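Could you help me review a protein record that somebody else here produced? Do not assume that whoever made the record got everything right. The record follows directly below this note.
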Amino acid sequence: MNRQQTQGHTGVTGTVLALSGDAPAGRPVARPIVEGPHLLSGVAATPAGEVWVAGNAGQRPLAARWDGTSWTLPPGPPLSAALVGASLQDIAAGPDGRVVAVGGALDRIAQVELPLLHEWDGASWTAWDDGLRGRVLTGVATAGGETWAVGHGFPWGGAAGPVVLRRADGGWLPEEVPQLPKGKLLAVAGTGPDDVWAVGADDRAGLILHRDGRSWRRVPHPATRFPLTGVAAVSPGEAWAVGRDRVLRWNGRKWSRVKAPVTGANTVAAAGPGEVWVAGGNGELARFDGRRWTAVPSPPPYGPDAVWLAATAARDGIWLAGSHRLTAGGAVGESPAITARSGDS
């Protein structure tokens, strides 16, 4: 999964696209999900073929489900009236059909950031209170029957640095991670409990952490000028990470830079070693078939006005979620503004 931290923007509408090897140009998925401006920053697929997206609409969390024909919006858990700017940043689906969405909001009375951690049990959403005030959650993923959520704290909350939570023992348990006061985690992915990757930033440069089943450690990688916002794990010997002008590949021993035909990568998804997609701003899409990269333009009506923020492997291919700018005439104009709660990313 991935995360480019985002906030809602007037005139922006959510965008969903399904891709496959036999239809690389993609097909837009029926919309609208909701009327009015909204932003999609997470996407997940269930083994049963459902697809979920997450984001925000009108400064309220948004989670919608695609059943193959249409979108539905199950009511979310009640939120305190004191919360403003509430947004879901990422979403993940487990093999048992459970769905987890994460994000953050500001408590305007206490003036502190609070994480959002919502679980769908197949019938309704439940909000978890993990007690982590002064933090937000920005990425979530399932791996080998376990679910992981990542994020970061804020200096003014007394909890600066990366945050990792693991679903276990009927709740969410904090994991011990390297102490990095300027660090933040934006995305997480894995193949099992002993192979989990989390990426983000240490100050403004990229950051990669790995869990080997016992502990988290920082892993060296080629220098990046920007945060890493997306990660995908294929096997213990193959993983991918992206961030703006960098695409990185793990070969089981080290991370290396890969030349891919994208200039502003936000997200990456892999259906296998021969089906890897990278996407980003200006409608950029690129596919790796195991041997070579191919640039693929976003189809109409999105084109270069799309900003792809999230991607996931599904039963029928790769699904992308993001946004594009609207005017009275449709999807034209500038790409939407993408901002981070804790600073530029």
